[in-house]
Amino acid sequence: MKTFAEFGLEPKVLQAITELGFEEATPIQSKSIPIALTGSDLIGQAQTGTGKTAAFAIPLINKIPTSEDRIVALIMTPTRELAIQVSEEIGKLTKYKGLRSLPIYGGQEIGRQIRSLKKRPQIIIGTPGRLLDHINRKTIKLDDVQTVVLDEADEMLDMGFMEDITSILSLVPAERQTMLFSATMPPNIQRLAAQFQNNPEHVSVIPKQVSAPLIDQAYIEVHERQKFDALSRLLDMESPELAIIFGRTKRRVDELSEALQKRGYSADGLHGDLSQNQRDAVMRKFRDGSIDVLVATDVAARGLDVSGVTHVINFDLPQDPESYVHRIGRTGRAGKEGTAWSFVTPREIDHLHFIEKVTRHKIPKKPLPSIAEAIEGKQRVTAERILEFVQEESINEYKGIAIQLLEQYDSVNLLAAAIKLITGEKKDVSIELTPEDPIRAKKRRPDVRSNGRRFSGGPFGGGNRSGNGPRGRSEGGRSGDSRGGYSGGSGSGSSRGGYGGSRDGSGSSSSNRGGYGGSRDGGGSGGGRSSSGEYRRPRQEQ
Ligand SMILES: Nc1ncnc2c1ncn2[C@@H]1O[C@H](COP(=O)(O)OP(=O)(O)OP(=O)(O)O)[C@@H](O)[C@H]1O
Ligand SMILES: [Mg+2]
């Protein structure tokens, strides 16, 4: 493992890294920072939560002179929340160097962004739709951009951002550094690479299993109508510090967050139909812990880094294995452990197997917790809370009444009644959710071209690379590794991976994203087969 001092970075950048508490570089950082510092194009793949943001941000920041007053770096993300988050991380990393960075995303008042642009930021972090708006208004000019990063590169392609990205990149000088990052690199990422990059170096620290290994994964078989009670039981039994619950549709998210609130949980919902103010408020509450359950569509699946997320629950299975990997990757980040459970209806078992196959990870089955277990869990948590109070809180003013009560009543009865009172907070209101259709097992065409092996590539890289692809950088060099170019196990023992992002209802006035019906095909190929033979369905805005 390398220290950041080994990269020969500017002292002011190093100082900011130290202040962030990063002691050693993560594997993706160790491998990509030296390459990125040379100015070479790069494709970086590593599991969720392993520091890909700093892997591209540090070299980018290091090379911008403080005296620069033009936009020289452009980072694109698929969602607004991710643009904001990346911008904040860049803000921290540029603290001592004093560069100016600005997030540019849909839903925020454009006049305010125009005013901020007058302060001449050197780094722009944006979602494609709103970036194009500014370009058309000539409030953003890309003539001087030297570095471009596509964070969640595969998602950008998948969401049908290709057209916007193509227009944006046609305005950036060809003489530039272009970096693509994601935890998942489906083979059709080659198209992005071939179109926008110049002989990229390939850096991958994805070992066999693409999902981050610190995540304890399991599935629970439930019928659609049992899901809500199952969720309540899980939440009671586990009492997550922070949890993200993924639902399939915006309606589902609305209904579910409302139902959880009715039952007394501290929950709120996030999806692309909310106003940006609402989205910001929900994220703020989740980040500061004033709610502890975030219910979200796939808009929260990618990239979001919220510390303290101990649980991810797929209330509905995601359509794509990629989405599964990114969703569960909201926990188990930066070396911490996490728990990810998925509800699977009997008709979705085949789809689950498909996810297992593509992610190369068997997801064990777990029984639905019984009511007794849920109650026991709640009681245990209450008892723990009481003990914390005994140790930490000032309870002197309650002692008088406690002594009085103890003189009259039995101590066990008193404490049992108190525990019942506290654990009984959740209201037993009955909940009806609109049922969602089961996800049908989707047959993604196995990649059979390399050695005739099925799933040799999978959506996460490797597999065959045809002629003009980037040159593979097979780290770990396991010979005979059928995953080829992209994969290359790190062998470094650090198998934590990348992160995820979220999805932008980018709110560009010139596009139809952001609401229902903003259906865009995966990469402009009419939603059919992409050049790599992968089937990509048209996807709706989340
Ligand atoms: N070298 C480091 N040492 C300690 N913590 C780090 C280091 N680099 C990054 N982190 C922290 O790890 C967390 C995850 O980083 P980041 O969000 O960049 O992951 P990612 O690989 O982009 O994940 P995803 O695929 O989900 O987007 C962040 O909280 C970040 O501050
Ligand atoms: Mg990330």
TrEMBL record:
EC number(s) from the headed UniProt entry: 3.6.4.13
Q: Is ATP-binding one of the keywords UniProt gives this record?
A: yes
Q: Which PROSITE patterns match?
A: DEAD_ATP_HELICASE, HELICASE_ATP_BIND_1, HELICASE_CTER, Q_MOTIF
| Presence of keyword Signal | no
| Pfam families to which the protein is assigned, alphabetical | DEAD, Helicase_C
> What SMART domains does this protein map onto?
DEXDc, HELICc
The DEAD-box RNA helicase Q domain sits at 2-30
Biased-composition ranges, Basic and acidic residues, are 472-481
Q: Where is the Helicase C-terminal domain?
A: 214-376
Q: Where is this region: Disordered?
A: 437-542
Q: Which GO terms describe its molecular function?
A: ATP binding; hydrolase activity; RNA helicase activity; RNA strand annealing activity
Enzyme class, first EC level, given as a word? hydrolase
Q: Where is the composition biased (Gly residues)?
A: 458-470, 482-504, 514-530
Q: Which reaction does it catalyse?
A: ATP + H2O = ADP + phosphate + H(+)
Please state every residue range assigned to the domain named Helicase ATP-binding.
33-203
Give the UniProt record's GO annotations in the biological process aspect. response to cold
Q: Which domain of life is it from?
A: Bacteria
Which keywords label this protein? ATP-binding, Cytoplasm, Helicase, Hydrolase, Nucleotide-binding
The family assignment reads:
Belongs to the DEAD box helicase family.
Protein name per Swiss-Prot or TrEMBL: ATP-dependent RNA helicase CshA
Species for this entry: Paenibacillus methanolicus
